[in-house]
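Model it.
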Amino acid sequence: GTLAFVPARMVDGFGLSASAAGGVMVLYGVGAFVNNLLAGAIGGMMIVLNLGLQMNPALVGSLAAIPRLFDAMTDPIMGYVSDNTRSRWGRRRPYIFVGAIMVGLVFMGMWQLPAGKTEDYYFTFFLIGSLLFYTGYTIFATPWVALGYELTDDYHERTRLMGTQNFIGQLAYFIPPWLLVIMQSQTYFTDMVDGAKSVAIVIGAMVIVLGVLPAIFLREKVHPQGAEATRRPLEFRSLFFGFFKDFATSLKVVPFLQICIATFLVFNGFILIASFQTYVLIYYVSGGDQVEGAKLAGYAGTIATFSTFAVIAFVAWLGTKIGKQRAFLVSTGISAIGYGLKWFCYNPEMPWLVMVPAPLLAFGLGGLFTVMPAMMADIVDQDELKTGLRREGMYGAIFWWVVKLGMAAALAGSGFLLNATGFDVALGGGQSERTIFLLRLSDTLIPAVASLIAMAVIGLSGLTEARSRQVRDELDARRLSLAT
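Modeled.
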């Protein structure tokens, strides 16, 4: 089956019929669902350590931060290993298969927390489990990301593919908000910790069953003459020196850096002030009424969530009409308008106006993670034309490495920024006018300016449809000459 926005026609990029190509897109999208489910579940269940086991919040924070730093370091290594793997099953599929099984089993095990142990025991138990979890997560996710960059050579099919996977991946985010409710069910579980054990088994089983599907049913492209012939053997010496060489070479590709910078700005501009919207709704729009402010935040968030699905479909379609670069400029520009509207629509006199910017804000991340992965595939083509190497794994890993480190920095920075506004929780609804003004200004101006700068960066990148097609033609001609 295909999603509605995948046109029913011959798909040149996949070399398949429309229905078969739609199946490829959906199977790849299943990987996105697993990827997002893992990210959402590990974050949504961490609260069990504090509320269920009464662990110190500082220790829980450390358990969240330490494995993520480890994860950020292992991503590029896994990308390099995947790029340079030779096997009868390909470069990506063996790792996706093994990684899905490993991360699913580890997720099940890490929540089987025994009763009556010390805080130090739980910290050590969960830290070891988390490090194993993120190892399996990396083994699965990094090759899965790289596989998407090579599934099709067609400029527009890359946009449709990434739109489809983003659409399917978003479905996973409906699950984490309900995990705490399920784990606390007195009908099925004795307590929250007992609930976590069972929920983890269900999620782990879903990860294994769904995660192996892309490895089993998708097929990698083989380039026996071009990039394949220049791949390095996976020996320790080549692994050590080759990794750093590939890492440094990737960072010298200016269009790639521009994509990373733009993504950093849009995504982390949003993350930096993500909590500020709630503060503005509670302490400005609702006059300090936390219940009413939370309701408004819930309504706006729900509208934005559902709007994201429509945005992904629209941006994927738009990208095939005007090109990925222009589609990014349009979607990011619309989100910048949405951020600007917050200043006028977050109004104590008319609280219902908070719903107006919500659909526009969905264009920010919805468009970003539809267009950017598709543009990354074009970057890999440019790199192959220049170096003769296909390095989807390295590029994908560095891209997400930037996103993860940026997110960590933004989450940390948001607390300092909140303090800089003068916000004092003890004052309740009695925050100063200066604090309210700075909260509103930050909530509106920071993401809007970050989005505008990102638009300028991509506008200067030269990643046009004409250039991408020229590179693709030159690669095809080179491969044809090498094959004859």
